[in-house]
UniProtKB/TrEMBL annotation:
Residues 48-198 form the Heterokaryon incompatibility domain. Coiled coil: none annotated. It comes from Penicillium steckii. This is Heterokaryon incompatibility domain-containing protein. InterPro entries: HET, HetReg/Transcr_Mod. It comes from the Eukaryota.
């Protein structure tokens, strides 16, 4: 039946929402409904909501089918219509219940109403009696995926060890099931920005795929089991990351004490979900505000372009927290050269999946935070990067430029290579370049390199200090095999990633010696003989365990692509892979980690490169050097 679009939304007050009720009309084959306003200041009637991807794989955002509201026709999204057909097939459409469906209940053509309704989303999804996630119509393997989720759920409840899970699940028998799960998580819903909050906020969720359904708890348990299976390939898929991050956010929110919510900052949430799809790039911030602890930092305004919104959010963060930490996100979320956005403002529409927290997301600083699991909420309060000590941020905004006070600590000189960049050799070395003058032994240099690789922390979430002896032991035992090019009788071969890193780093000059020479000299010293003891446990080279030396190496070098760096004055550190010889290593007041700044070619300011780990300078002690001159940087 052809439906002529004629329905027009009646205006509502700012404190109102619309709810939809389907009504049966035996004289027509069309779907009929009524739409009524309700005040959110008063108790709402019981209602359900649907969470779905607006676009279809086949027809995109097309509206080829319609329904009748209050007797008038309204074309709806094709993806929504498939759900309505499923609802009708299940014979639950005309049960008298109310529904909240965003594309129908909000006048999408009214930008002011859209902005107003976004601010009610948290209340709407928490108030809903149930939220139904519509993943779409069934496919040839969707039933297999749901059955496999139930199998993984059972394994989770049976409390198997990691080794048991791998031996029983990483086998040919389940090849088809793993592929089905991969396709299940690749459905469009998992990649949509708005669906993140729709996964986390509701009290009750049911996932519908065709005529089958499954609960949120079962999916989360299945994801936890799949996360332990490292050889089947699913962990490298975008769909798995999207699902796992949803599970982690939900777990974090559930971890709060009664009456309290454990929440994350908008900057942290946006970084973890930057790889999501959003039709409107402004929604990369707006779509997560209902989950954010600091959503009040910005207003919803669909009349401003996305880059202006990103700029205003960064300015608001700095002003509210008196902290420059947010600029570190521009380390990864950097704007393209064609963009006019300032280098210090995170370019949130860059789709870079972030699994590993940046250093400014350290657990002991709650103004940003990280997406750690509920069992990892505890941390050592006595540790924390504090490169500028307690120096308050001194800043101002000049148009889109950030004027920030700080000091130049050193200059980047040598850089290890990686898959994208060749090694950049250090300049000729003189021991008088050290500040203060010192002659470090080979072992002391090697320990410093180990600290740099681990960012001097034990775990991914930067909760505890690095266990120096244990990590250094693993570091030396793994590298010794690469140096001698012989297989140990009691150690497994170093992982391919570590072998590649050694090849990219072996020639880097540190204090006048190559890294390979430093390693050999250190191994020749009596004090490291203990690390060759075959009775010591073999180093763990499983990237799943992020609280080991190899786990930290995998996070910083493989996942974050950080490069080992030697400064002009002999300091050792880790920097973003895009760092260059001559970049300034700076401490900006009000920023907890050092940063790299690059002089502009025109000489009228600097651009932001990224955050930096500088061994021995993360606690602010470098500011005690009275020879450092304070200056104001104009960061463009």
């Amino acid at each position: 039946m052809t439906i002529i679009t004629s329905y027009s939304h009646k205006p509502i007050e700012e404190n109102q929402i619309r709810l939809l009720k389907f009504v049966e009309d035996e004289s027509s084959s069309s779907i009929h409904a009524v739409l009524e306003p309700f005040s959110i200041k008063e108790p709402l009637p019981k209602f359900r909501s649907i969470s779905y991807a607006w676009a279809c794989d086949e027809s995109g955002l097309a509206r080829n089918r319609g329904i009748r509201i209050d007797g008038q026709g309204l074309y709806v999204l094709d993806s929504l219509y498939t759900f309505l057909e499923a609802l009708k097939s299940k014979r639950t459409m005309y049960d008298g219940g109310w529904w909240w469906i965003d594309s129908v209940c909000i006048d999408q053509g009214n930008l002011e109403e859209r902005a107003s309704q976004v601010e009610h989303l948290q209340q709407i999804y928490r108030a809903a009696e149930q939220v139904i996630v519509w993943l779409g119509e069934e496919s040839h393997d969707s039933d297999l995926a749901i059955d496999f989720i139930k199998i993984l759920d059972r394994y989770s409840r049976e409390k198997h060890s990691v080794e048991e899970l791998r031996s029983e699940l990483e086998i040919e028998k389940y090849h088809g099931e793993w592929k089905a799960l991969e396709y299940f998580l690749a459905r469009r819903w998992w990649s949509r920005m708005w669906t993140v909050q729709e996964f986390v906020l509701p009290r009750s969720i049911s996932f519908w795929c065709g005529m089958r359904s499954i609960g949120r708890v079962s999916i989360c348990r299945a994801l936890a089991v799949a996360n332990r299976c490292t050889t089947i390939g699913i962990k490298e898929t975008a769909g798995f990351t999207n699902g796992l991050n949803r599970r982690r956010v939900w777990g974090l929110y559930k971890a709060g004490k009664p009456g309290e919510n454990v929440t994350l900052s908008l900057s942290a949430l946006t970084s973890y979900f930057s790889s999501m799809d959003a039709t409107d790039d402004r929604d990369r911030l707006y779509g997560l505000m209902a989950l954010a602890s600091d959503a009040s930092l910005m207003d919803v305004n669909y009349f401003l372009p996305s880059q202006e919104i990103y700029l205003r959010f960064a300015q608001s963060f700095i002003t509210h927290y008196k902290s420059l930490d947010i600029i570190s996100f521009a380390s990864i979320y950097s704007s393209p050269s064609s963009s006019s956005q300032p280098s210090w403002v995170p370019y949130w529409q860059k789709k870079t999946p972030l699994v590993i927290p940046l250093m400014v997301s350290q657990s002991c600083r709650s103004h940003i935070g990280n997406l750690r699991t509920p069992h990892a909420l505890e941390y050592d309060h006595s540790i924390g990067y504090s490169a500028s000590k307690k120096r308050a941020a001194v800043y101002s905004f000049e148009g889109s430029n950030l004027l920030a006070r700080g000091v130049v600590v050193d200059v980047v000189d040598g850089l290890a290579g990686n898959k994208k960049f060749e090694l950049v050799q250090s300049s000729e070395w003189s021991s008088t370049q050290l500040s203060p003058p010192n002659n470090f032994s080979a072992t002391e240099i090697l320990v410093s390199v180990c600290r740099c690789i681990a960012l001097d922390r034990k775990d991914r979430y930067l909760r505890y200090a690095m266990p120096s002896k244990d990590f250094f032991q693993d570091f030396v035992r793994l590298l010794e095999q690469l140096l001698t090019e012989s297989q140990s009788a009691f150690l497994s071969s170093p992982a391919q990633e570590l072998q590649e890193w050694f090849e990219w780093t072996r020639s880097l000059q540190i204090h006048g010696r190559s890294f390979k020479t430093i390693l050999r000299d250190s191994l020749d010293q009596d004090q490291v003989d203990i690390y060759r003891d075959p009775t010591n446990p073999a180093p763990n080279q499983d990237e799943y365990y992020h609280d080991t030396f190899f786990g930290r190496f995998f996070d910083t070098v493989v996942r974050l692509s950080l490069r080992l760096m030697v400064s002009r004055n002999g300091r050792i550190g880790m920097v973003q892979e895009k760092a260059m010889k001559g970049d300034l290593i700076c401490v900006l007041f009000g920023c907890n980690v050092p940063v790299l700044l690059r002089n502009s070619e025109s000489g009228d300011g600097v651009t932001f490169v990224g955050e930096c780990f500088l061994d021995g300078c993360m606690d602010g002690s470098v500011l005690d050097d009275h020879g450092l001159l304070e200056k104001t940087f104009c960061i463009r």
